[in-house]
Specification:
With 252 residues, the chain is an alpha/beta fold. The protein has a single domain, classed as 3-Layer(aba) Sandwich (Rossmann fold). The chain contains 7 helices and 10 strands. The chain has a 5-stranded mixed β-barrel, surrounded by 4 helices. Bound molecules: adenine. Adenine binds next to strand 5, strand 9, strand 10 and helix 7.
């Protein structure tokens, strides 16, 4: 099995590359695809860039040009569920594109992908469980040696937890509580928002391969989101996602 690992953070992709062996690199469509072995698995690692189009194009290249049989997407997300804190890890069991709306068409619901007839892309239970265990194992066993305590404290990360649930993706960085509230009321059970996961899940669905999406909460999608987001991504989230994916690969 060959696994495509896509990250929306340059820093986490750099961490993956540092741990890879038998490395070779190819540039296609403005992305750098690094093939090699990571934790004993054949992988292709790539920084997807941001947004649904960038992520979909990258996922398609991974499938068509690099023959991957599974996609893993990692990165950060804005919290929607009230109980989520910065530093928590969310594993998607279902993904939806919150900016998709062609409900003017007869028999088409809001959020439904036209012609596909699907709104929610679900992740197989087995992969949800493996990803959940991997993230929990990282937090329990590796976190304290991986990220300095004073860095965690500076971002108020105390006891990060792993949560499973619905992730919504759209081409918008959400930093307005009114927009966040509206999304929560439209999408019961929504855990977090980001800008790529459900697009990659759609590409995986259309090619009949599994897709796992793991996100670290970087902000609460409010007015401070953009400030919190950048430094947290570099100092903390890149380690969380890289460490969790390494644990996941060990279990596959
Ligand atoms: N990724 C991280 N935080 C986000 C937010 N608030 N909105 C969309 N994508 C994000």
């Amino acid at each position: 099995m060959k696994i495509g690992i896509m990250g929306a953070m340059h820093e986490e992709i750099a961490l993956f590359r540092d741990s890879m062996v038998d490395v070779s690199t190819q540039i296609r469509g403005m992305r750098e695809y690094t093939s090699g072995k990571l934790a004993g698995c054949d992988v292709v690692v790539v920084f997807s860039r941001w947004g649904k189009v960038a992520a979909s194009a990258t996922a398609t290249t991974l499938i068509e040009r690099f023959d991957v049989d599974m996609l893993i997407f990692t990165g950060v997300a804005g919290a929607m569920a009230a109980e989520l804190e910065v530093g928590d890890i969310v594993i998607a069991d279902s993904l939806i594109q919150h900016d998709m709306d062609v409900s003017f068409l007869p028999n088409t619901k809001k959020f439904e992908i036209p012609l596909l007839g699907v709104s929610n892309f679900t992740v197989d239970d087995i992969y949800v469980q493996l990803a959940q265990s991997a993230a929990q194992s990282y937090l329990t066993n590796d976190l304290r040696t991986n990220v300095p305590e004073n860095t965690l404290v500076s971002f108020n990360v105390t006891e990060p937890k792993v949560v499973v649930g619905l992730i919504a993706s759209g081409d918008q960085f959400i930093a307005d509580p009114a927009i966040a509230d509206k999304l929560c009321s439209q999408l019961p059970g929504l855990q977090c928002v980001e800008m790529e996961g459900a697009a990659v899940a759609q590409v995986a669905y259309e090619h009949s391969i599994p897709c796992i999406v793991m996100r670290t909460i970087s902000d609460k999608a409010d007015h401070s989101a953009a400030v919190d987001f950048q430094q947290f991504t570099i100092d903390v989230a890149s380690h969380f996602t890289c460490g969790s994916v390494m644990r996941l690969l060990e279990s596959l």
